[in-house]
Amino acid sequence: MQRQTTLAKNEGIVRNWYVVDATDIPLGRLASKVAVILMGKNKPTYTPNVDCGDNVIIINAKKVKLTGNHPKTKKNYYNVSGYNGGLRTRTSGVMLEEYPIEMVERAVWGMVPKGRLGRQMVKKLYVYEGAEHKHQAQNPIALDLSK
User: How many CB atoms are closer than 10 A to CB 122?
Assistant: First the structure.
């Protein structure tokens, strides 16, 4: 008896909308679980070369949890100009206070594939600093990732 492997095609993909509350969830755990949903690895029809993931809305990005001594010691690096001395650093505590949306987006981007397919997957991520978002018309399903 031979079994057939089901591969996803672009035409037959159904994309759901999920909303995730990031309050008191460690940043790395949040990013890894959201990346799995964006890639579609939680679906039985996952295909590595097709974007079969769902749309994810992250709210309360400002309340994400940084464990240990990360708010004071972990540095985030940005090369602004490309010239010598153009390297800029910020601690994670500063990032969380001033740029929480960028911090969460960078963490998720680090966990999806790089290249054309990864950029397509990251476009389905919507991050908001507070509890309100503008995607109520899509009727997002609430996901509890705190377990």
Answer: 16
Q: Distance (Å, rounded) from C-alpha 51 to C-alpha 90? A: 33
DSSP symbol at 65: B
**Long-range contacts at 111-119 (CB < 8 A, ≥ 24 apart):** 111/31, 111/32, 111/35, 112/35, 112/38, 112/39, 113/39, 117/49, 117/51
Selection from 57, 55, 36, 145 nearest residue 101 by Cα: 57
Tell me, what amino acid is at 128?
Answer: Y
**Residues 99-136: tens digit of each pLDDT:** 999 999 999 999 999 999 999 999 999 999 999 999 99
pTM of the model: 0.91
CB atoms near residue 25 (< 10 Å): 22
Fold of 15-66+103-143: Ribosomal Protein L13p; Chain: A; (3.90.1180)
User: Taking a C-beta distance cutoff of 8 angstroms, is the pair 42, 10 a contact?
Assistant: no
Structure tokens at 94: 């500063």
